[in-house]
Design brief:
heterodimer, A: MetI-like fold, two-stranded antiparallel sheet, 2 strands, globular, B: alpha/beta, D-Maltodextrin-Binding Protein, domain 2, 42% helix
Amino acid sequence: MAEKTSKHEFRSNTVPALVTVGPVAVLLLCLVVAPLILVAVMSFCSTDEFYNVVYKFTAVNYTKLFSVDYLRIYGQSLLIAFVTTVICVLVGYPFAYLIARNKTKWKKLLYMLVIIPFWTNSLIRIYGWRAFLGSSGWLNKFLMMLHIVDEPVDFLYKTGTTVLGMVYCFIPFMVLPLYTAIEKLDSSLLEASSDLGAKPLRTLFEVIIPLTASGIFSGCIMVFIPCLGYFFVSNILGGGNTDMIGNLIERQFKSANNWPLGAALSIILILVTLLLVKLYQKLGGDMDSLGV
Amino acid sequence: MKRKILAALISLSLVAAAVTGCGGKTSGGSGDKGELNLFVWTEYLPDSVVDKFEKETGIKVNVSTYSSNEDMLAKVKSETAGAYDVLNPSDYMVAQLIAQDMLKPLDFEKLPNFSHIGESYKNPSYDPGNVYSVPYMGGAGAIAVNTDKVDIEIKSYADLFDPALEGKLVVLDDFRAVIGMTAKAIGYDLNETDPEKLAEISDKLMELKKNVVLYDSDSPKSALISGDCDAGMIWSAEVAMAMEEVPSIEVVYPEEGPYLFLDNWVVTKDSPNYENALMWINFVMDPDNMAMILEEFPYLCANVDAIEKMGESYSENLAKNPPAEAIAKGSYVQNLDSDVLDIYSEMWTKLKE
């Protein structure tokens, strides 16, 4: 009898929900919510002479955030992230289209080409680029072999190199949502468009792109936002002379040892991210297709 | 959608479990000889020496690395107490660790090899009486020049600001070293605190901005060897290593007197493996072991008996064994007040933006 009642109790939703979601919820509280609160609290603190955090309210970190130098770095980061995103769309879209509309056996292979780089740590891949682009790297050797240039070209340690590295790191995040969107595209619509006399270019701009806009949106969000926070690409390929917000935050937590200022900078980055996601929703983006 | 969330949460919890699993370093985990957690500079301790220590003592050694004193301090503070047993801080950082009561005094009865350390390195100003630290290696922020590629003559830090070097320099990714060098270039002190002079230094620093293409403390020699940079201010031993690869690279000790550093072995206050830590420190002070280290990383060495073992290839090499005059003229970084360091930080941000 007693067994039966307990079985009955399990039919209610609370216990299973607690058992399955409970631990995860606790984990999330501990690993996401609590640290975020700590970051928010710390951003209003200061440090003592030994860089220890002093828990006493001050808004000085937020006033520092508006110094000309920092504003310039934000601008620079936004610009680099923007250019990266645009290049990712321009390069990623045709590629995603090629995979999605491909009916041959190459489809899987092409798809794998996007996935395979994930098997190697991105830091190592970026160091690979440094070796490849250097004065005595393969690219320069190749160009000199073909007598295109007489002396090694300085590819490294420029803002453009940072953008290249960013594009390389983030292009899969653009291709995958685009692929999903293009895959869903009904090809009878394309046929209808051409039957009605639209030239391919017109079909592209009036049918294909509007119908895959959600993929473009989510791809852009998934490239632009992490791009703002990346710091090692600009350190390794940019030589450390084109700082981004990510570098600024990293430095506060490491060499400058000013955690409260780093926390305030992180809060700004979080706010920018939230703003962009809100904008994305406003423009009709679907939160599901962000994969979160 | 719900399933997606669940999948995401589960994977998150797996990641979390993995992360926490990595963090928990406990002593005595493997074997009965216990463990030792070293936290040292990158490119400063050959694996062969660590292997030898493990073989001789049966102690399991975990090595973690850092590339600036400040990084090390931040990491030690953010880890649980006793996560690292032995640290490798530079001069001024030893003083800071002592002031914050983060170190345990060394038991010199267990460190008989301290006798191999040169007298001039004992009893340093940052740790009077060597209560907490023994010196390891050091060096200077020396100038490296690839004479095949650089036409101008470089004799001083000030010469590195020459417009002819635009886009050619690599310097340490270390704000005290680079700002200190700039101060010296215009005749001020490495540890300048006067706001007016700091403003001048800041202006001078902007001249350097065009010349420097790479900030690297981990392995600055690489860019010189690959030819991506033609000159720079880097650790003296890194110059020595670059010279071995590319003969046209030369070492220059600046006329103004170089920026100097001396790194030390210390034991953290909460170290759970104090005895093992002392065994390690004694082990690296053994002249044979120290010579093994110098073979690979030829820095200025505090161990006079090890230097003797190395012979002339070490002692006569200017980059490996900096000349006494250069050392005498040089200066060490000192701890500054946090409001002065804020100014340094701002200057650094300006330089790197």
